[in-house]
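Annex B. Sample input.
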Amino acid sequence: MAFFDAALFAEATITLVVIMDPPGTVPVFLSLTGRKTRQTRNRAARQAVLVSLMVISLFAISGEAILRYLGIGIPALQGAGGLLLLLIALDLLTGKNSTEPEAVEDVNVALVPLGTPLLAGPGAIAATIVFVRGAGGHVASYVALGLAILAVHLILYLCLRFSGAVIRLIKDSGITLLAKIAGLLLAAIAVQLIANSVRGFIEGSS
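Annex B, continued. Sample output.
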């Protein structure tokens, strides 16, 4: 009897890496933490990845039960995540993050928007729930899915942890430019999530 499903591990890892896009999170991470100290950036990276890991693990274990109890579906998650990301994107585009934030915001940035919904977003949550559905109660499948989630978050942490090398190249003015680009990208992601949410509601009611 096999205790590890290698095919599911590979499929889940690749799928979550594509959805969570570790390299793509670096510009947003730097736009929010680039002017902080190295120790603060490292702490934010660690906290953001831990928050994402906890959220994804929670939905892997009891995601369907939570959604069913609250009476909400994936489209609602997508809409909420899209609206939240849109608010963050507007802050970046209008330059509200151009000044040094207060110390209390260090933890907030790691939790929102980095931990969720940027890393543990609706797409990653939905994909995780789908993989759990397909596991069919097999131990090998659950072990593979758990290891895939851990592997993806390790990749995320490494990308964020060593993003400081980018700061040494782009300097302070580059961080400002990066914030504008990240804001534009976040706005596009937010609009796409909202569009997916609307399409999901329409298809669900048809």
